[in-house]
Amino acid sequence: MPPLLRIPYTDPLPLPKIIPSSAVTVEGAVAALVDFLSAGHAGVRARRPRASDVESERHVREQHRQEESWRRSAGGQSHRAATGIGSGSGSGEGTAGARGADVRAWGKTLLLTGAGISVASGLADYRGTNGTYTLNKTYKPIYYNEFCASHEARKRYWARSFLGWTTLHQAKANDAHRACGRLAELGIVDNLITQNVDSFHPLTHPHLPTIELHGYLRSLSQLSMLNPAWAAFLTTLLTTGALNTEDPHSRRKLGLKANPDGDIDVPNAPYTTFRYPACPVCLAKTSSTAPTVSTDADGAWTPPSTTGILKPA
C-alpha cells in the first residue's frame, strides 16, 4: 500500500478556496488584506475602554494616513468607505477610533511566508510555473538523517550548495519583504514565521520578531580553494553569465538549475570528488577524551571521523 502522504509532497497542490471571492485580482487581494488587518476583535465593543485604547486613539488618525499611503503604493485604492476607517461622519468616526484601537490593543497578527515570496528576488519556488517540483519531477532534497549518516550524501550536498550559494548571495529582498516590515512598523503585524532559508526577512526588518522555521544558510561560508575541479566548474558558470541572470529559463540554457534552498542541480556531476571542511572547533580539541576528527592533508573531513560535521544552521 503506497504511503498516504509523501514528504516532501511534490505534486501540485489542490486549487485553494479564495476567501473572499473578490480577492482574485491584485486590487481585490489588497482590499481583502486591508479589511482583514483592520478588523477589530469580536468582543471589544462590549468592554470598557482601557488606557491603552485611549493612547491608541490619539495616534490613530496619523496611523490611518500612513496606512492609506501604504495601500496606494501597493497598487490598491482607498478602502475607507468600505471599512469605516478614517470616516468623518459621526458614527463612522467612532467606529474608526474603535477599530484603530482594537488592531493595536488586541491584534496579534502573524505572517507566514514561503518560497513564493522570494520569486521576485530571482529565486525559484517549488510548485509554481517554474518551480523545482514542477520542472524536475525527480528532485528530492537531502534529508537530515542522510546528511548525518552518509559521507557520500554530504559530499553531494556541499558540492551542489557550493555552486548554488552565489545565486543566493547576489539576490536581494523585494517589495514583499519590505511590506512585511512596514506592516510591523504600523503596529499591524507582531511576528513572522518563514519557511525560507535566504535570510531576506531578518535582514530587511530586523525589528520584526522572525522565526526561520527551516534554519538559514548565512552561518557558513563555502570556499573553493580545496576543491579545484569544482572551482573550475564555478568559473565556467561565471564566464557564461549563468549566475548573472534571474530568469530561470536563461539559467537552464546556460547549464544552471537553481533550487529554492541554494542547491544547484549539475547533471552527471562527480560528487564523490568534492571535499568539505571539518569543524575547526572540534579539530582544535586536544583532550584524550575528545571525539575523533580525521582530515586529509588539506583539512577536508574524512572517514572514520565520529564528529566534526558541519551543516547549515
Automatic annotation (TrEMBL):
<dbReference type="Pfam" id="PF02146">
    <property type="entry name" value="SIR2"/>
</dbReference>
<feature type="domain" description="Deacetylase sirtuin-type">
    <location>
        <begin position="89"/>
        <end position="313"/>
    </location>
</feature>
<dbReference type="GO" id="GO:0017136">
    <property type="term" value="F:histone deacetylase activity, NAD-dependent"/>
</dbReference>
<protein>
    <submittedName>
        <fullName>DHS-like NAD/FAD-binding domain-containing protein</fullName>
    </submittedName>
</protein>
<feature type="compositionally biased region" description="Gly residues">
    <location>
        <begin position="85"/>
        <end position="97"/>
    </location>
</feature>
<dbReference type="InterPro" id="IPR026590">
    <property type="entry name" value="Ssirtuin_cat_dom"/>
</dbReference>
<dbReference type="InterPro" id="IPR026591">
    <property type="entry name" value="Sirtuin_cat_small_dom_sf"/>
</dbReference>
<comment type="similarity">
    <text>Belongs to the sirtuin family. Class I subfamily.</text>
</comment>
<dbReference type="GO" id="GO:0070403">
    <property type="term" value="F:NAD+ binding"/>
</dbReference>
<dbReference type="InterPro" id="IPR050134">
    <property type="entry name" value="NAD-dep_sirtuin_deacylases"/>
</dbReference>
<dbReference type="InterPro" id="IPR003000">
    <property type="entry name" value="Sirtuin"/>
</dbReference>
<keyword id="KW-0520">NAD</keyword>
<dbReference type="InterPro" id="IPR029035">
    <property type="entry name" value="DHS-like_NAD/FAD-binding_dom"/>
</dbReference>
<feature type="region of interest" description="Disordered">
    <location>
        <begin position="45"/>
        <end position="98"/>
    </location>
</feature>
<feature type="compositionally biased region" description="Basic and acidic residues">
    <location>
        <begin position="50"/>
        <end position="71"/>
    </location>
</feature>
<keyword id="KW-0808">Transferase</keyword>
